[in-house]
Amino acid sequence: MNLLITGAWKYSAEQKDLLLKRGYTVIDMPNERGALPCDPAAVDAVICNGLFLYHPIEAFTALKKIQLTSAGLDRVPLPYLEAHRISVHNARGVYSVPMAEFALSAVLRFYKQTDFFAANQRERRWDKHRGLRELAGKAVCVVGCGSVGTECAKRFAAMGCEVIGVDAFPREDEAYTAMLPTSALRTALLRADVTVLTLPLTAETRGIMGRDELAAMPNGGVLVNIARGGVLDTDALINETKTGRLCAALDVFDDEPLSPDSPLWKIPAVTVTPHNSFVGEGNAARMWKVIEKNLLSDYF
Fold first, then answer.
1. Which terminus of the chain, N or C, has fewer Cβ atoms within 10 Å?
2. Which residues are catalytic?
């Protein structure tokens, strides 16, 4: 079985040896945008991230299985995979912990005015800030209650917050005070001091956080987007944050990297990070567990 592994996953010699022992022939492709290192028609399985954004999946005529290194499924043609009975596995749970920690830290940056104190330290200035806020007792709306959203919910709940989940398939879950259907999003936003977007990008979720939804958030609200840029109306957010009515921590954008000309860079109420929230030292071990389950335990 020919297994194409792109540079999206860095394996160890021991991990490669285990794959070889299970009958895989490993073919390396360091750059997904580069030339294919083999005949795509000879590839049985792939470990990748955005490979099929740059190479037509139709050329992979023998393909049976795809293991993604991303949690999202928006970079593969799902209807084609279903029609051709190609199984696809995402990296569910691999990045949830660091992303949830990132979301919490992004909110605390605004609540505890860490930029103010960092600037004071650089200037050796002893100034107090009397506008610090407490997170305890605040209402947090988590939009998208999958693995990432639930890890976010646990951490905000531990800080003494009331956590309301919004999801296309609401359920009872002890991590949340309550969980509402997507149709109730605006209702949930009306009282949300903090809103965290963790939902996948689909045709149904594109632009789900639009002008009206942002307007529903109370003054002083904080929005965190660690989902995909496409779920948010960026122009509407710019209008809301320029005045300081809302604060926003954005780790994902419609077009990446974010253009140097984007006004988001210069808005004091906005934190811009370069799609970095997923990074954590535990990712490699969690990714290998996913690959073991999908490519070793379940061998075609």
1. C
2. 228, 256, 275
